[in-house]
Design a protein that fits this description.
24% strand; alpha+beta; 7 helices
């Protein structure tokens, strides 16, 4: 009897160890760890005002040009080269959280698969793991896609994004309060969003001053719509192999850190809440990551 009991305990212990090993090797934990660990350790919460979202330029100051005439420092060159190589080798990742406007006006985390009713209002918070460019396209039913981000009303139509600096779609900083949320109304249907994160700007897509000018002179054609060929390429990219992990923080309000990071253009640190969903390309050299969200209107 004791021997049988010992065997049973040993079997249970082996099963427990197997579960632990399986958990330790869970790819979802790998995705979560890679994403969160690439956040800064601390956030500069003392920043007074929001930084304008502008893409980097290739212009160099006179002092920098003069400095470049000096003999190159091999150590610095190697460090810079290593940083560029490491950044290029990082798989594109995106964390997103769907917030719903609560009865008290606060933003509450909700499941993306939730069914929404007339009068419900939602907002999407997007957090990339690398610097790059962001595009958001919207389709309804069998309708043609239209680009809802970048927005000519915000940051001069720019769409440059920085690693772990959250972007809201639509923005809570819209001057018109009615435009700060997606509000469901009318007939039921599916509102589909395509969130595209790229390393380099998409060709032919107007951004910045080009987008502002386009919408100013083509009011009947704004939002801008992609060509059939371009849209086919984006749809093809949705079939790329991706790892994903979901959190279980639904029902919690948006944290103060998230609000500060969004309104001041700061990077979320490692102690901030993780996104509701994190998706990451398997291929480290993939030039873009496409995430599709279906918002179900009942």
């Amino acid at each position: 009897m004791r021997f049988k009991t010992f065997i049973m305990l040993l079997s249970l212990a082996a099963m427990a160890c197997g579960v632990l090993v399986a958990t330790a090797q869970e790819p979802n934990d790998e995705v979560r760890g890679a994403f969160i660990s690439s956040r800064p350790k601390t956030m500069n919460a003392n920043a007074a005002a929001r930084r304008r979202r502008t893409r980097p330029t290739n212009t160099t100051s006179a002092s920098a040009k003069n400095a470049n005439t000096a003999a190159p420092n091999p150590t610095r060159l190697n460090e810079k080269k290593s940083a560029v190589v490491n950044e290029a080798a990082k798989a594109l990742g995106l964390g997103y959280t769907l917030f719903m406007r609560g009865t008290n006006g606060r933003s509450i985390r909700v499941e993306p698969t939730r069914e929404f009713r007339n009068g419900d209002s939602v907002r999407l918070a997007l957090e990339p793991n690398t610097d790059g460019y962001l595009y958001v396209f919207h389709t309804e039913g069998d309708g043609d896609p239209e680009m809802i981000y970048p927005d000519p009303r915000l940051d001069g139509g720019e769409n440059w994004i920085e690693a772990h600096v959250p972007v809201e779609v639509p923005s809570s900083e819209e001057t018109d309060e009615r435009l700060r949320w997606f509000t469901f109304y009318g007939n039921p249907g599916v509102e589909r969003l395509y969130v595209v994160v790229t390393r380099e700007p998409l060709p032919i897509v107007p951004t910045g001053n080009d987008l502002v000018g386009y919408c100013a002179t083509n009011k009947g054609k704004c939002p801008w719509r992609p060509s059939t060929e371009m849209w086919a390429q984006i749809r093809t990219a949705t079939r790329a192999e991706v790892k994903a992990v979901a959190a279980k923080s639904f029902g919690q309000p948006q944290s103060e850190k998230e609000q500060i990071a969004t309104t001041r253009g700061l990077g979320l640190d490692q102690s901030a809440p993780e996104p509701s969903v994190i998706r990451m390309n398997v291929a480290t050299n993939a030039p873009l990551l496409v995430t599709v969200l279906d918002l179900i209107h009942k």
